Amino acid sequence: MARLKAINPDEATGKTKELFSAIQSKLGVVPNMMRTMGSSPALLQGYLDLNNTLSHGLLGAKNSEFLALSIAETNACDYCLSAHSYISEKLVHIDTNSIVNARHANSTDAKTDAVLKFANVLIAKNGLVNDNDVEVVKAAGLSDGEIGEVVGHVALNILTNYFNNTADTEIDFPVAKPLQEIEA
């Protein structure tokens, strides 16, 4: 059962109602994570702004989804695993094998693999990467801007993972099981 309340869009007021209306017009629905974030319009606005800005970045939609999948797997966020598995397959048209690989922080594309590995290093080291960590990702062909965006995506996904794990947000996407359950 959810620990934090998801706001019914029909009952929203003020800034939350305004944000929900914009989300509804763009997505056709207000997902439970956003409904739950709606109790803090500042949090919801901050999430939406960073998500929107990064969606127009250098890394592209596929790498954004690969990062979201890998980070959700690392942080055991069932909500984000489910949401991004669905989005990856249905909206970004990523094949199942690539989705599973991303959840393992792997890719057959060398540059994408470096992106995922660097994101995991960032998480494991709490952002305290060293010169070698950055040189490895640069050697794989990432620009300074792309490296910066990886950091941004890690921050965005940690935000949503931690939020959903705290809220125990009700999953409103087809449920994706953690890899340890699938592979056991």
TrEMBL record:
<dbReference type="InterPro" id="IPR029032">
    <property type="entry name" value="AhpD-like"/>
</dbReference>
<keyword id="KW-0575">Peroxidase</keyword>
<dbReference type="GO" id="GO:0004601">
    <property type="term" value="F:peroxidase activity"/>
</dbReference>
<keyword id="KW-0560">Oxidoreductase</keyword>
<protein>
    <submittedName>
        <fullName>Peroxidase-related enzyme</fullName>
    </submittedName>
</protein>
